[in-house]
Amino acid sequence: MQVIPVPCLSDNYAYLVVQGRIAAVVDPSEADPVLRAIEEHGLKLTEIWLTHHHWDHVGGIEPLVEECPVAAVRGSRYDAKHERIPSQTDALSDGDSFDFEGATVDIVEIPGHTLGAIAFITEGNLFSGDTLFIAGCGRVFEGTMGMMAQSLTKLRSLPADTKVWCGHEYTINNLRFARTIEPGNAEITRAFEEAMATREAKRFTVPGRLARELATNPFLRFDHPDVAAGRDPVASFTAIRRAKDNF
Ligand code: ZN
Ligand code: FE
Question: What residues make up the domain containing 192?
Answer without folding.
Answer: 2-245
